[in-house]
Write a structure and sequence with these properties.
Elements lengths: L4 H4 L18 H13 L12 E7 L3 E7 L11 H7 L3 E9 L2 E7 L6 H23 L3 E7 L3 E9 L4 H9 L9 H11 L5 E6 L7 H10 L3 E8 L10 E6 L6 E6 L1 H24 L4 E5 L4 H11 L5
Parallel strand pairs: 4-5, 4-7, 7-8, 8-11
Antiparallel strand pairs: 1-3, 2-3, 5-6, 9-10
Helix pairs in contact: 2-4, 4-5, 4-9, 6-7
Length: 312
């Protein structure tokens, strides 16, 4: 739960409440995307770019294994060296390279719309930059928005020229409804049979727990990467006195006296929650990055790419 802004219900109810307020078609923003793509390099781990090496066997260029020759096999792949030494007919198998599918999963629940949509704005900018890097590397890129269910979907697309379709989709995103990652991600799984990297951009404020949603991806053979959107203003310590807190997503309310003791407990719970997220992801081999909404998006993207081994 978004303990202060979300609970206090700072909805700023205007016709554009919850909408993306950054201009993804701004000339300077587009220049930064181009620069990030130029700086990115092929990697063997982490956030990998196009034509990754798969576990499939075929007629690629990298030797993988042998198998016994059977009638009808292409004799061009016979290992002559093995036959000369051991008199055995074995075929050389090679690793097939296939495109990497990258799925950007953006939390569009109302908790992402607090503080003037700061978290949502950062999420779409980071997603736009990473998608551009992927498209530049010939990966297949798609975007899905999540709340209580799948609320929007940009089908997989490929090619650098498709970036403007991605930007148009991202610019039209609007936050609404509640956070229910697990059922929403189950719907995502049902719609996408081709496995790949699933980049989840969320503040992880799920009343049912963030773990279930991440496990949906893990158990269905996707490779999850968690980008956790964080805004320190979610826990504004300047609030004092008797307050009526209202959950921005559910409308539930509670009377609270904000004393120094309560504030200290809030800080402790916040720290414990963050440690739990980091421990969960680390113990399951899920890359996890804290994305501060105050940082320039390109700095965030560079840190993610470097940590993933894409940049040297």
């Amino acid at each position: 739960m978004d303990l202060i802004d979300r609970l206090l219900g700072r909805k700023r109810r205007t016709p554009e409440s919850g909408a993306v307020t950054v201009d993804l078609f701004d000339e300077e923003f587009l220049r930064k995307l181009s620069t990030l793509a130029l700086m990115s390099r092929r990697a063997v781990s982490g956030f990998r770019r196009g034509e990754r090496r798969s576990k499939k066997r075929g007629s690629g260029v990298e030797f993988a294994d042998h198998r016994a020759y059977v009638a009808g096999d292409d004799i061009r792949f016979l290992d002559v060296g093995v036959y000369q030494r051991f008199g055995k007919l074995l075929l050389r198998l090679f690793e097939v390279e296939e495109d990497l599918s990258i799925y950007f999963l953006i939390d569009t629940s109302l908790s992402m719309a607090t503080q003037g949509s700061a978290k949502l704005n950062q999420a779409v900018q980071v997603a736009a930059a990473l998608a551009y890097v992927g498209l530049s590397g010939l990966d297949r890129v798609s975007v899905t928005t999540l709340g209580e269910k799948v609320s929007g979907r940009l089908p997989p697309t490929r090619g650098k020229q498709r970036v403007f379709h991605v930007l148009k989709f991202l610019s039209q995103i609007k936050a609404e409804g509640r956070t229910q990652l697990a059922p929403a991600l189950k719907s995502f799984i049902a719609q996408n049979k081709r496995r790949g990297m699933a980049v989840l951009l969320s503040d992880l404020f799920d009343p049912e727990g963030f773990e279930a949603g991440i496990n949906v991806l893990r158990f269905n053979k996707f490779d999850p990467v968690v980008l956790q959107l964080v805004d320190e203003r979610d826990f504004d310590g300047r609030l004092t006195g008797d307050l009526r807190l209202v959950d921005i997503e559910t409308g539930d309310s509670r009377e609270v006296s904000m004393t120094p003791q309560v504030e200290k407990k809030l800080s402790l719970e916040t720290a414990n929650r963050q440690r739990a997220i980091e421990k969960f992801c680390a113990s399951r081999g899920v890359p996890h990055f804290v994305v501060d909404v105050r940082k320039p998006f390109d700095e965030v993207v560079l840190s993610v790419l470097r940590a993933g081994g894409l940049l040297q």
